[in-house]
Design brief:
The structure is a single chain. This protein is of the alpha+beta class and 419 residues long. It folds into two domains: 163 residues, PAS domain (Beta-Lactamase), CATH 3.30.450; 189 residues, Hypothetical protein af1432 (Orthogonal Bundle). It is 61% helix and 9% strand. The chain contains 14 helices and five strands. It has a five-stranded antiparallel β-sheet with strand order 2-1-5-4-3. A hairpin with a 4-residue loop joins strand 1 and strand 2. The longest helix has 67 residues. The structure holds fe (ii) ion (FE2) (2 copies). One fe (ii) ion binds next to loops. The site of one fe (ii) ion (FE2) has 5 residues, from helix 6.
Length: 419
């Protein structure tokens, strides 16, 4: 299981990248628009350097043609490639071409831009011979009145100015990204701490559920065998056989719970039958068989314990179909129940009970082999034969506490309760 540090770090990193990208796009878009606006302002200021345009002059074009021509020539002198004064209907009154940029004039004329009338100043960027240029249209008016005339020109953008504005944009972007990174770093310990609390609570909850499973299973087991160790041993055997079979972690958790709770329904079987020393008659056996359905009923009271259902409900089914409660055969019997049936019987055979002695390992294994295809899935018996010897040695003559400790390790591993 990946550490909480790594999970929080990866998620914050992902959030930082996404937020940074979003902020980068917005800041860049806004910054580029700002650059455009500043360039237009520069172009407009360039115009103003030549003083207020005499609107009266513009409205009397015939009498002031010479003066206008001079003004246009002044305007284009520095950064403008071409400049043109127009009347209120956009008819040309006077125009001039900057002799320094005469080579660009053809390029500029190819930019056949048409600005709509009666709007505020407008601009459009274009490239003139590889240089950034801008076409501007500036309405000329008295205070807030309608445009009495227009100035339209092609403004050559100073590369140093653009570089400076782009540097400003890059700085703004860096500051924004650094602010996001700093916020993310500040959030890291806070989120980590919150997650630790949640994880601790969910671990406690899980540990409580596992304890409940052990307590319920042990309580029932001690009724008929005076020891709860049968449950621990079969759970340990089931884990080993499950690992040899290759079941996944979810199935393993269900198998462990099933092993603990397989006979939980025996709580509803009377002592006279449950503790009877001799063989059960047919009526008593029917009563005993009820422990399977009783067990399922008990499990349905707890969503968490219900994970044991597959084993509890089907652990007395037999491979040849002669078992109960449904008489399922072969692979109709759920896999976990088939696995459990082998280890449950094996432990019963090699354990001492009030009414019988423990069988020797070889004798018990002969019994298991004999049950292949009848009681048990033959493939599982074959796999079990491969691990049974080591399993038997692992638990024979070992104190109950040691068996419990070994199983606890497996429970910790599969239920994620290890540190
Ligand atoms: Fe049973
Ligand atoms: Fe059992």
């Amino acid at each position: 299981m990946p550490s909480i540090h790594r999970i929080v770090l990866y998620r914050l990193l992902a959030a930082w990248v996404v937020i940074s990208l979003a902020i980068g796009v917005v800041v860049s878009w806004a910054g580029l628009r700002k650059i455009d606006r500043q360039l237009v302002t520069l172009a407009t200021m360039e115009l103003k350097r030549f003083g207020a345009v005499n609107l009266a002059l513009l409205t009397q074009p015939e009498s002031a043609r010479r003066a206008l021509d001079q003004l246009a020539a002044q305007v284009v002198w520095e950064h403008f490639i071409v400049g043109e004064f127009q009347d209120g209907s956009r008819r040309r009154l006077a125009s001039a071409v900057n002799p320094l940029h005469a080579a660009l004039q053809t390029e500029v004329e190819r930019q056949s831009l048409s600005f709509p009338l009666n709007l505020d100043r407008q601009f459009r960027k274009f490239s003139a011979d590889g240089r950034n240029a801008m076409r501007v249209l500036v309405p000329l008016r008295e205070d807030s009145g309608p445009a009495a005339a227009y100035f339209e020109g092609a403004f050559l953008v100073d590369p140093d100015t653009v570089a400076r504005l782009r540097e400003d944009l890059a700085t703004t972007l860096l500051v924004a990204l650094a602010a996001v990174a700093l916020t993310t770093l500040c959030l890291y310990p806070i989120i980590l701490s919150l997650n630790r609390n949640v994880l601790r609570q969910s671990r406690d909850l899980l540990a409580g559920n596992v304890e409940l499973m052990e307590v319920v299973g042990s309580a029932v087991a001690t009724r008929d065998s005076s020891t709860h160790l049968h449950n621990y041993r079969v759970a340990l055997y089931a884990v080993r056989l499950g690992e040899a079979v290759g079941i996944d972690a979810t199935q393993m958790r269900d198998l462990i719970a099933g092993a603990f709770l397989h006979d939980v329904g025996k709580i509803g079987v009377g002592d006279a039958i449950l503790l009877k020393a001799g063989p059960l008659d047919a009526g008593e056996f029917e009563q005993m068989k009820r422990h399977v359905t009783l067990g399922v009923e008990i499990l349905t009271k707890s969503k968490w314990l219900l994970r044991a259902r597959e084993v509890v409900e089907f652990h007395h089914e037999r491979y040849d179909g002669s078992g109960y409660p449904k008489g399922l055969a072969g692979v109709e019997i759920p896999l976990l129940a088939r696995i459990f049936a082998v280890v449950d019987v094996f432990d019963a055979l090699v354990s001492k009970r009030p009414y019988k002695d423990a069988l020797a390992f070889d004798v018990a294994m002969a019994g298991i082999r004999d049950g292949a295809g009848k009681l048990f899935d033959p493939d599982l018996v074959t796999i079990f034969e491969g691990i049974a010897g080591a399993l038997y040695r692992e638990t024979r003559d070992v104190a109950g506490a040691e068996v419990e400790a070994r199983l606890q390790l497996q429970i910790g591993k599969y239920f994620g309760l290890t540190a």
